[in-house]
Each structure stands twice: as C-alpha cells, then as structure tokens.
Amino acid sequence: MASPTVHIESAEQFNQLLNSSKIVVADFFADWCGPCKAIAPLYEQLSAQMSQPNLVTFTKVNTEKQQQIASAYAIRSIPTFILFRDGKLVEKVQGADPTKLQSLVRQISQESQNAAAGGSGSSNSGGGGTGSNSALGWRGAGLPRGYTDVTDQLEIPKTELLNFDEEFGNVRVLFDSSKPGALNGGKKTEKDWVVSDTDEQLLLFTPFMSVLKLHTLQITSVADEDEEIMRPKVLKLFTNRPHNLGFDDAEGETPTQLIELKDSDWNQDSTANIPLRFVRFQNINSLVIFVESGEGEGEKTRIDRIRFIGETGEKREMGKLEKIGDDSGA
C-alpha cells in the first residue's frame, strides 16, 4: 500500500495543500540528517494511521530542495515538525524527539475531531453571546462583528506563565481548543485550568507569529468550589514587550490598558468578553497579561481559557533559507 505522505515539490503545491486540507502536518528534513532518518519511520506510521482526504494531510519538505518554504517558516534546525490548521501555523516542534512528536499527534487528533464534528459552527456577532464551536475550537463568547479568533497566531512554544500551581494545568491549557472540562458537566478527570501558586497574581507572556490588531480579549474562569480560588478582577495589559515582565515591573509600570472586571462581565459560560482600546492595540507582536488581583478575599486566581479576537496584519515574507547548522535536535 502506497504511503499517504505527500512529498512537496514546490511552494505552489504546498500552498495548495494548505488551502485544500483542513489540517496539514509538515516534516522539514534533509537527506543528510541522521536524526531525520531515525524518526522518519514513526512519522510514516502516524501518517498511515491518521491521514484523511481533505482533512488531515502529512507532508515531507526537503529543506535543501524547498528553501523558499523553509525560509518562510524560519526553519533553523532539523527535523522540525509543523502543524497547520486552515492554512495557519498552530504548533512547531523541533528535534527528533518521539515524545514531542506524540504530543503533536494528540493535538492533531483533537484538531481533526473538531473539524470532523463540523468545526465551522455558528458564532454570535455581538460582544456578549455564548460559547461556540468553530474551526478554531471552543469559545466562551461570540465574536464582535467583523473580527475573527486570532488565537491561532500565538507562538505557543515561546509563551511563558509565571506563578502557576503545577498541580493544575500549565500555560498550554489556557489556549486549548476544547471546551473547559468544568463546563462539560459530569466528573472531571483532568485539571484543565490554571491556578496561581504563592498568591493571586499571574504573569503571562504571549508572543505572536504575525502582527495583529487586537479588538477583544476573552477570558474564561469557572467559579471554583474552593472559596480561596477566585476569578480575576484587576488586569494590566502591556504590548510589544520582547519578553515577560517581572512582578515588580508589572505592578510599577503604566499599562497599555487597565481592566477591572465586575460580576456582570461574566456570562453563562463563565467568560468575560473584554473590549480593548483598539487604537492602542494596532501592530501588536506580543502581549503581557498581568492578573494583579482576584475578585474576592481568596489567595489564588483561576483561569480556564484565553482567546484573542481581532485581525491579522503583516505576514512573513518568503525569503532565502539561511544555512542550516548541525543543531539537528539529536
């Protein structure tokens, strides 16, 4: 039986696949790369198991023959695996690490299930609204008219969350495309939400893969049975920082926007739909979210999901591939 993996012969072919297949997985490799050869059988096995016409497509991109594509996605070491959804980069994994590749596979499985279930579900055009399922997954509030969910532009591997309790979820949980377990009803088997650790404060650094115009921030925080765990109340947003802030800096600096949430801001899906001062959130390449305090007298703060709503701006331009060194992730 022939392998379903598509070997990319041109940038045009690759772009056509990104447009025709809901989910595309790309293995960036080179013929001389030992680690690439070592993990290739596992990749082929996953391709055989998970490929679905027009839904999930596995591809291989030879970085020496397809330098234009490799440069466009900033491939600096090989092997590198990239997951695309609706033509947009969702996840990037570097190195021949079977554990990391299996983690990527779990995300592919989740993405394909969302898409197969009719991911283009309806969403409200108003700012309040209720949760919706779309190609980008679950949201706790509808979309403002004329704007889209741009959470998929987040560069997940470079995000950073400070002061979170490791007994609960980590930073990736915040941007999970699935509905929070606490809103699904029934018994919760995993703690798929974030809780602060030593006090009520959280510091989140979110870099983006393209320049954005941000219109709305959606934060989901399910009311916790533990009275010591609160919803966020006072937030400070800082734009275009090269890295995360320290807590002292976040408390002392003037934010791009200061937000104080009220009980009435939380809808039936436990989501606050926060409008941003749009003129201040043009040309955004990163956002720092500082949860300064919670809504009550507790000691910790909880967040289940975060979504960014707006529009994409500049895209990466195709260019020449820089020479790939020996940092092949072995």
TrEMBL record:
Which positions make up the signal peptide? Answer: none
**Stretch list, region Disordered:** 112-135
Q: Which GO terms describe its cellular component?
A: cytoplasm
| Organism domain of life | Eukaryota
What Gene Ontology molecular-function terms does this entry list? protein-disulfide reductase activity
Is the keyword Disulfide bond assigned to this protein? Answer: yes
| Domain PITH, chain residue ranges per copy | 139-328
Q: Which Pfam families does the annotation name?
A: PITH (PF06201), Thioredoxin (PF00085)
Enumerate composition-biased segments (Gly residues): 118-131
- Recite the UniProt keywords alphabetically: Disulfide bond
Q: Which residues form the Thioredoxin domain?
A: 1-110
CDD domains (UniProt xref): TRX_family
Family, according to the entry, reads as follows: Belongs to the thioredoxin family.
Name of the protein in question: Putative thioredoxin protein
The organism encoding this protein is: Coniella lustricola
